[in-house]
Amino acid sequence: MAFEPVLTRNVGQPEARTVAGYKKRGGYAGLAQALKMQPDEVTDAVKASGLRGRGGAGFPTGMKWSFIPKDPDKPKYLVCNADESEPGTFKDRLLMEHDPHQLIEGCAICCYAVGAATCYIYIRGEYTAALATMEQAIRDAYDNGILGRSVMGSGFSLDLFMHAGAGAYICGEETGMLESLEGKRGQPRVKPPFPAIIGAFGAPTVINNVETLANVPHILERGADWFKSIGTDERNTGPKLYAISGHVERPGTYEYPIGVPFRTLLDGCGGVWRGRSLKAYIPGGASAAILPGEQFLDLPMDFDSVAKAGSMLGSAAVMVMDETTCLVRAVARLSKFFNHESCGQCTPCREGTNWMELLLTRIEKGQGREQDAALLSNICTHIAGNSLCALGDAAVGPVKSLVETFLEEIDEHVRLGHCPLPPQPVFEGASH
Amino acid sequence: MSERESRRPTPVVGSPVGGVGTSDGYGEPWPAQSPGVPVLDEASRRRVEELVGRYPDKRAALIPVLHIAQRRCGGWLPDYAIAEVAAALELTPADVYGVVTFYDLFHQKPVGRHRIRVCTNLSCQLRGSDEVMAVLRQELGVDEGDVTPDGRCSYVHFECLGSCDTAPMMMIDDTYHENLTPERVREIVKGLT
Hints:
The structure holds two protein chains of two kinds.
Chain A: H1 19-24, H2 29-36, H3 39-49, H4 61-66, E1 77-82, H5 91-98, H6 100-114, E2 118-123, H7 128-143, E3 159-164, H8 174-181, E4 205-209, H9 210-222, H10 224-228, E5 231-233, E6 236-237, E7 239-246, E8 252-257, H11 262-268, E9 278-282, E10 291-292, H12 303-308, E11 317-322, H13 327-341, H14 347-364, H15 372-383, H16 391-405, H17 407-416
Parallel strand pairs in A: 1-2, 1-4, 2-3, 7-11
Antiparallel strand pairs in A: 5-6, 7-8, 9-10, 9-11
Helix pairs in contact in A: 2-6, 2-9, 3-6, 5-6, 5-7, 6-9, 13-14, 13-16, 14-15, 14-16, 15-16, 16-17
Chain B: H1 2-6, H2 42-52, H3 62-72, H4 79-88, H5 93-102, E1 114-119, H6 122-125, H7 129-140, E2 153-158, E3 170-172, E4 175-177, H8 182-190
Parallel strand pairs in B: 1-2
Antiparallel strand pairs in B: 1-3, 3-4
Helix pairs in contact in B: 3-4, 4-5, 7-8
């Protein structure tokens, strides 16, 4: 059965970046439908669709909206998480650069459902092109009565602003993002209270990822039953963007029904590059455990199946590594990232990520000691669950899988006193 | 302070300034010199007012305003710029300094006219970002983080820039350069003025 793209249908269609062009291609029908309904009915429709957050945690979106207090007099906010910083993830950039109105429409529907009059799209500061495209689309939306005092003539009033960050992975964590939005260091808050009760500027706040909100117009337009008909089961529904990178022939963002087997993703992007064989892959960004390739070729790429396999779907950033890849080197790079991005607030994460990078770098250089693998495990135990936000746990993900699944690679480094798979030059005749 | 003061770049009053919230990104850099002029000129102050109006709390405009100030100072934030932003938003310089030091896109020492950021995270590493870094060092003749003697360029490695499908890649100023090869990197760097 052929799957027709939903979220990426406007990719490569420049006319979709204007209100007129987007409408011509069927856009803003979901918002028009929502405005005819009661706000609670909109939330119920999203609940019924089974949509789960596409940012990484997979929390049911409709349920998140329903946590917002109904008090009509207090301000409420929607903050759209466009701080896409998980290594390997580039799907939200595509959505913003190619189909800005799809996101604006999703934001408007969410705001109507929860009674928010202001929405901030927190975009990472590096995404200058996406920022410019979004700004232009927002102005166009104001000029055409999509945003502003009366959204599509309904009397519902909505302001939407872009807010650019300044380069910090931790600002993708929802409370770190709120701190950053408020003009502070992006250090995550203690939860509870959750943002639905005390979020941006002390007010109830919904925080949703770009791709999550991009799904919303389609649910309203085509119905929860249609949405539920796509995917593995009732807990894993709808279309999904997979950002595939690394050692494949055609890296890119691919849209499939959620839960498609990894093998389909790999075949779809031309397979492992340069005729090499698959060694391992990461199914959901830098925070996810590395899976041995052959063993998990047929793994359904949905939230629950990947979790059962001991990893996580996360942002569905699939990083593929071929047979020439040294996994110690790969994980050392990821640990360097987490060490750099740890905000420093919680000791286990701040100190632990530093030791992880140090140990892995040492092992990769051939200076590892026999007890280093056990030491890495021990550090993982001390970080996991012992910090305020998920960054610590994320840092543990790849390291734990290296020690548990690929222990022989660490041992070989220690035994040989050097890396058994030194990096191969990627480019012919490259100078060093 | 005096050493930093002596390096103070100075703006032309009324030079065009955009800023976050406009399609031209963070605004234009300082084009020329003229002493004793504040970092935030009249046009940027109007932009600051507009930004402040978007939030229930003035402080929320801090990061967007720092982007404007940095752009006005040639890509970095000297102490006097931090002090001026603090005053504009009724914060203490220490408070603003704390924010500046937290974020990778803010710089506290001079950078090249062109700022090169090479993504070296895993997806780019798998496709040759180390070779890109090596070519930059060779072409520019300075270490990572240092400015070329003519002030033209500085380069650093950077965490994932969300362009893994076009790895290896680098960002120069506001532009992504994707699907790089050593030859392409050399060509691009030679074209920077």
